[in-house]
Amino acid sequence: MPIHEYVPLEPPGCALCCYGFERLERLSDAPLTHCTACGTPVRRVLGAPAVAVGGAHLLREGHLAKHGFTQYRKVGKGRYEKTTGEGPETIGSD
Ligand SMILES: [Zn+2]
Predict the structure, then answer these.
(1) How far apart are CA 73 and CA 9, in angstroms?
(2) How would you write the pLDDT of the chain (94 residues) with one tens digit per residue?
(3) 19 CA to centre of ligand 1 in angstroms
(4) DSSP 8-class letter at 71
(5) Ligand 1 center to residue 65 CA distance, Å?
(6) 4 CA to centre of ligand 1 in angstroms
(7) What's the 44 CA to ligand 1 centre distance in angstroms?
């Protein structure tokens, strides 16, 4: 079974999810949308959590969207704008 990594969309999260966490999943399992411990919205990422935001050049946008991922690029201090996928248009605070 593949191991998938998740990162919280709304820090700080909890002890389980604050730095991201890994979960064994069957291919037929639906991705988690919320931390199982604290309910913080989470997002599944490819590879290390550090490349999920700000590493757009490492990941092909079409591939991400097709697999249900949402990708963001940094547009300002603490703000991210969606580049592909079905998530919110922006994340961060004004
Ligand atoms: Zn949590």
Answers:
(1) 14
(2) 678 889 999 989 999 999 899 998 888 888 899 999 999 999 998 755 444 455 444 556 666 667 777 788 888 888 888 887 777 888 886 6
(3) 9
(4) E
(5) 25
(6) 16
(7) 14
